[in-house]
Amino acid sequence: MDFIHEDFLLRSPAARQLYHRYAAAQPILDYHSHLSPRDLAEDRRFHDLYEIWLEGDHYKWRAMRANGIAERFCTGDASPFEKYLAWAGTVPATLRNPLYHWTHLELKRYFGTSTLLDESSAKSVWDSANRQLQNGDLTARGILKRFRVRVLCTVDDPCDDLKHHQTIAASEHSFRVLPTFRPDKAFLVHAPLEFNSWLRRLEAATNREIITLYDFLDALKQRHDYFHGHGCRLSDHGLNQCFGAVTSELQVSSTFAKARAGSAATPEEAQQFGAHLLLFFARLDAEKGWTKQLHLGALRNVNSRMFDAIGPDTGFDNIGDFPQITPLCSFLDQLARDNALPKTIVYNGNPADNYAIATAVGSFQEGPVAGKVQFGSGWWFLDQKEAIEWQLNALSRTGLLSRFIGMLTDSRSFMSFPRHEYFRRVLCNLLGEDMERGELPNDEQLLGSLVQNICYENAQRYFSFDLNAGETAKPTAVSTRSTVD
Q: CA 461, CA 370: separation in Å to the nearest integer?
């Protein structure tokens, strides 16, 4: 039997029933992705397996370094084929790492190969994949169509002109690609060189001079309005921890002026500035009916030597250990008191905080929106089988799994869409085991509806995206196999 077979990760008849009848056929709503809008606008055709699979993939780089591979084969000057060979030689060493599952699931779904990748099989896999990349439908847009992606939300700086999104919207009718407003650089008052460099971009984007805090906030609102006009319905923030300490506008204005003049804000000043700015953005989101995303708990760029050499997002980040709950609840509470709390998704980077965050979001639910504040899916180091189950269990035990809006890719790779299949298999296996033990009723329709909702329908209702650009038929429960155990 092939390693990746039709019942991969599905350990019971009930799990197989749920997956094949209710999960497998669902389309994808990928509401958080780092894919390139330019690649989609240009419908990029990838030259080889390195370009589509290894280029920019810091998950693989981490594994290669741990396997003793020199940096030139990760981010250095080795040729694409040499880098691919180094990865192929590393794959057998990744047993029990989720990369082993993802690698072979991706090769199967994109190129139809069941071959286990290693040094001996590397050349044949490379040649076969490259032929399909050069002659088949595996272009940037073709991939989204193959995997039935209905909506893809990218991550975009407020200064971006969104021209690539405009190109896609004007020329593509099979799916929608929408921007996400991610203003992380607006918080950098502790790093004035980077902050002021970014402010020059903001001035150019808004065609105005930014001198005071009022100018700054007004320019940000202008860009928020611009994004809304181009279909944006989500914002996003990557933070160590949520900002909770509120101070006077006078103090915030003073901190802004200090950074504008080239002096770094103190840690306390940066926290207070961040709290004021985060509340400002949240109120804009609430006014427009957007969803706010908070990615909390990553400790980034811990290897300063490598950060200085090759920069961020290269595999030198890890799980952080920051106090999360008090500032998060303070932030949510301030907005709730003012009736200004937008729909919010909180992604947790540290599994030790799962139950605390799951219960925190439960304290701020309110109608008429079901699951208004979401405990987000397993993120970064936690988007693998065990940690996905941890997140699902914490949410189930403290809230309503039935209102969960499901998985996303959070990826820079066009080879990442099988992550949705992976999640769906883990979900169905978890529910199937509960059914087999008698902890959930043996009611296929009841559990099948739960699966369909988590895989797709809940997210569509939650975000209320206009899908006129895509297919209009509602997904149905169809089997992907001839018989079901």
A: 9
Of the residues 135, 167, 194, the one at which a domain ends: 135
187, 195, 208, 215: which is closest to 261 by C-alpha?
195
Spell out, as residue ranges, where the chain has pLDDT lower than 50: 469-485
Partners of residue 298 on adjacent β-strands: 319
**Cα distances (angstroms) measured from residue 254 to each of 186, 250, 445:** 16, 6, 60
Dig out the tokens for 32 from the structure.
């958080």
d(CA 123, CA 98): 23
Q: How far apart are CA 135 and CA 130, in angstroms?
A: 9
Residue 97, exposed/middle/buried by CB under 10 A (0-12, 13-18, 19+)?
A: middle
Strand partners, 98: none
Assess whether 57 and 83 both reside in one domain.
Answer: yes
| Residue spans of alpha helices (H) in 243-324 | 249-260, 267-288, 304-310
Instruction: Determine the pLDDT at residue 468.
Output: 65
Q: How is 191-237 classified by DSSP, letter by letter?
A: SHHHHHHHHHHHHHHHTS---SHHHHHHHHHHHHHHHHHTT--EEEE
What is the Cα–Cα distance from 363 to 344, expressed in whole angstroms?
13
Give domain status of residue 315, yes or no.
yes
**pLDDT attached to residue 482:** 31
With CA atoms as reference, report the closest residue to 219 among 293, 277, 156, 272: 277
The boundaries of the domain holding residue 86 are 46-135
Handedness of CA 259, 332, 230, 140 (dihedral sign): positive
Pairwise CA distance, residues 83 & 80, whole Å: 5
Distance CA 109, CA 424 (A): 15
pLDDT number for residue 472: 35
Q: Are 216 and 253 in contact (CB under 8 A)?
A: no
